[in-house]
Amino acid sequence: MTAPDRFEELSAGLATGVRERQGLVGLVLLGSASDEARHRRDEWSDHDFFAVTAAGRGAEIRPDLSWLPDQDRLVLTAREGEIGFVAVYDDAHVFEFAFSDAAELAEARAGDATVLVDDESGTTAMLLAQSRARAAEGDRFDPANDARLVLVKLLIGVGRVRRGEVLNGNAFIRHWAVHLLVRAIRGRFAAASTALRDANDPMRRFERDFPGWGAHIAAAVDLPIEETAYELYRMTREILEPGWDEFPSRAADVVATRLGWS
């Protein structure tokens, strides 16, 4: 567990590193690392942030992570894509961050956030405002479409498993179908989603908003793969179909017949 004072020390160290590294102009702490959401921090909280470079200098500066605090305590750093990075310290505390200029972060989304470092032009504040606007726009669901896609992912996934492509089938069933079912539930019962939800990831804190359904979905995922698929199918109908004219009932019947579930 990262103690509160250690967490704050790392935040301060990040701000110092950004201010002192030539070419870096901004730092935004995201999620539970921000002041807005500090009440959500627990033993598993890490540091999520944007480190913003001067315009056009992202590619030049990205190979250098010497500005991260407590260099002697880093046990690994790694890249996730072109602008994503992770770092892990000897106490297992994690940094996850995007490291680029504002233009490269043009599609970024942000919810709870705190700007710790900015330039005179307010580049980082503007980036955050745009990221929040994108998150708000993206925090919308089309439950009818998501419900249809749940059925498609289950149909394809079970087919892949029966063909012998178990790894790929698992991805369709345990990842895509679950994700889409969660989206469909949040969209169908939008009023039950509280401020705890993550605008960027509907899976986050789903169990807080829908404890019963969350527990049932989690239990289904732990079953053997075809049983998982059937339970997800059953829950999709049980939760979403009653009293909802937009539910694709005929398609659900077709999927059940094809997979021998009818």
Features:
262 residues; alpha+beta; 6-stranded mixed β-sheet; 15% strand; elongated
The shape, in one word, is elongated
What is the CATH homologous superfamily assignment of the largest domain? Beta Polymerase, domain 2
> What is the typical, i.e. mean, pLDDT?
86
Which CATH C-level class of the largest domain is it? Alpha Beta
Q: First CA to last CA: what distance?
A: 49 Å
Outline the low-pLDDT stretches: none
Strand line-up in the sheet with most strands: 3-4-5-2-1-6
Rg for CA atoms: 22 Å
Fraction of residues in H or I helices: 40-55%
Derived from helix and strand composition plus strand pairing, the structural class reads alpha+beta
Q: Please count the beta strands (DSSP E, at least 2 residues each).
A: 6
* Main beta sheet strand tally, sense and closure: 6 strands, mixed
**What is the CATH architecture descriptor of the largest domain?**
2-Layer Sandwich
> Approximately what portion of the residues adopt beta-strand conformation?
15-25%
**Assembly annotation:** single chain
Number of domains: 2
| Helix/strand order | HEEHEEEEHHHHHHH
Describe the structure.
With 262 residues, this protein is of the alpha+beta class. The chain folds into 2 domains: 4-138, Beta Polymerase, domain 2 (2-Layer Sandwich); 143-259. The model has no long low-confidence stretch (mean pLDDT 86). The termini are far apart. Helix 4 runs antiparallel to helix 5 and helix 4 packs antiparallel against helix 8. It has a 6-stranded mixed β-sheet, sandwiched between helices. It has helices at 4-20, 58-61, 123-138, 143-163, 166-188, 206-209, 211-221, 225-240, 249-259, and strands spanning 24-30, 47-53, 74-80, 84-89, 94-101, 113-117. Helices cover 47% and strands 15% of the residues. It contains 9 helices and 6 strands, in the order αββαββββααααααα.
